[in-house]
Every structure is written in C-alpha cells, then in structure tokens.
Design a protein that fits this description.
Strand content: 15-25%
Radius of gyration: 23 Å
Largest sheet: 7 strands, mixed
Order of helices and strands: HHHEEHEHEHEEEHEHEEEH
Shape: globular
Number of helices: 9
Number of strands: 11
Helix content: 40-55%
C-alpha cells in the first residue's frame, strides 16, 4: 500500500495555495530547502512526480492535483476527528479565535461575545480585526478558527477547505449632507444621485461594492474623494464634499450633519458570511460561537426592519 504522510501532504497543499517554495516556507515556518526535501521524499513515497519546472518556479503536476483532491477529504475528516475529541469538553471550555472585518466587530462579534460570556463563561473568544483576504489566509493557515467577511470576497462555496455560513444581508444607505436638495426628497433612488460627486475607497471591497451598486442602478459614480474609514468618509459628506453609500452596520459612525436615506426601490445590500475550515464546524465550542453570531445577526436584522 502507498504510504501517505499527512505532514508532507500539508506542505504540498500549502505550495498549491501559496504558489512558490519560498512563500510556502514562510507560511509553514520552514526553510525553502526543507520544503523541497519533504516534497522530494513525498514523491518517492507516492512513486509519482509531484512537481515540474516552469521557468524559475515549479508547478504541481496532474498527479499532485489528483493526490490533493483525495487529501482534502482526509484533512476534512481529521478536522471532524478533532471536533469529536473536543466534544468531550462539551464546548464549555477553551478558546475560539475569530478574524472579522472592521464594521462586523462592533455590530456582530461584540454582541456575540457578550452573549457567550453570559451563557458559557468558560469559553473564550479572541478577536482579530482583518479584511477579507487576510482573514482567509489566517483561517487557511490555522491562525484563526473562524473568519467573518463579505460574500463577494470570500472563497467560493466549492472550495474544499472551507465551509461558509450566511449571517446577514446588510442594507446600504446613502449619506447626504444635511442641507442637500435631495436630503428629504420622497422616493429617493440611487439613480437620482448619478451626477453627484462620490466618496469611497480607492481600491478594495468597498470601492467594488459602491461601483457595482451604482452600475446596477445605471451609472458609473464619479469618485471625487477617496477614503477607507467611515469617520473620514462621513466627515467629508458632512462638509458637503460628496455623497457616499454606507452600510447600516456602520451606524455607530454617523454624524449630526449627515442625513442617512434609505433607498426606495433599488436598495443595495452586502452579504456577510462566516467561514470555518471544513469539518471544524462540528466542534461544540465553534458551534456555540457560530450560534451566537447567528443570533446577533437576527437581532440586528430585526432592529434594521423596525
């Protein structure tokens, strides 16, 4: 029977995800030579070539991709085994590490942690603020147990490494200066603001969300100013420098000189999801954290509808 070495398979998987031996070594805290040696040994054990030269880099062979397709099932089963072993503790002790984007921390994570402290005081949650790309790198590397992100920037549902859990559809409202002519216009639509100067990030998720929402309404927004944080964006709106789309989850940042308008017919939304390594969601501690996040999302949606 062919010998399968889990540690070496994990190295091969990381190489597939990171693309280079150097990046793989950095992710696994190994030397590049050690990575190469382990993969050479794995190829000998499996009796198939796993890597081939591609210029100054290497690429995985078809045989390597075949091996990894089967290995993903093994990794998922090992996660389930860990989850069942943790079940002896009934999820009442230990620590769950959560990475979440900035507005999700006060809107979802903090209420969930407060509930868990009351219901399961022995279960700790360690929170780390991280945007989408970083959150999934941390999750894939095992540095966190759960990642909160936007669905548009999460790994695809078919990704064998992760399980995704929908949490919340967060409406986007329009921020206008208090004296704007459309501040109290009835039936406001996004298209009514097509000629306005817009404020949003120069790149990244929020730039893409704003641009996509405006394009769906039939226009390309003119970016007058660029900012990443809600404090800066709303300060510029208040000063009459432009208008902006603002997620309702960022309501704590709102200012007195800014009018928030709910769009009448073309309300855009961003979808918030949680992700865990596939199989790990069966662990009782992680299941309790996911449950608390779901309840926090339901409470927020109820408040938003009222």
């Amino acid at each position: 029977m062919t010998e399968w070495d889990i540690k070496k398979l994990q190295i091969l998987r990381t190489l597939r995800d990171r693309g280079t031996v150097t990046a793989t070594a950095e992710a696994l805290r190994m030397t590049p030579s050690a990575v190469s040696q382990q993969l050479t040994n794995l190829a000998k054990q499996l009796r198939v070539p796993l890597l081939e030269a591609q210029g100054r880099r290497v690429r995985l062979t078809d045989a390597a991709h075949l091996v990894l397709r089967h290995a993903e099932s093994v990794f998922a089963q090992l996660e389930r085994a860990d989850a069942e072993l943790a079940g002896y503790l009934r999820g009442e002790a230990g620590e769950v590490r959560v990475a979440a984007f900035s507005t999700a921390v006060p809107a979802l994570v903090v209420p969930a942690v407060q509930q868990l402290r009351a219901d399961h005081p022995g279960l700790g949650v360690r929170v780390r603020e991280a945007e989408a790309g970083e959150a999934y790198e941390l999750l894939g590397a095992g540095d966190v147990d759960l990642a909160l992100s936007l669905a548009a920037h999460a790994p695809p549902e078919r990704d064998p490494k992760f399980s995704r859990v929908p949490l919340l559809a967060d409406p986007l409202d329009v921020a206008l200066p208090a004296g704007h002519p459309l501040a109290d216009a009835p039936g406001l639509r996004l298209a009514d603001l097509s000629a306005e100067p817009w404020i949003f990030g120069g790149s990244g998720p929020w730039s893409e969300i704003t641009t996509a929402a405006c394009e769906a309404a039939g226009f390309v927004p003119e970016q007058a100013h660029s900012a990443a944080g809600w404090t800066a964006i709303l300060a510029m709106v208040e000063a009459g420098m432009g208008v902006a789309l603002v997620p309702r989850m960022a309501s704590a940042e709102r200012r007195a000189g800014v009018v928030m308008r709910v769009l009448a017919a073309d309300q855009p939304r961003r979808h918030v999801v949680a992700a865990v390594r596939r199989g790990a969601e069966e662990g009782p501690a992680l299941a309790k954290v996911l449950g608390a996040l779901r309840q926090a999302a339901v409470r927020r949606e109820t408040v938003q509808q009222n």
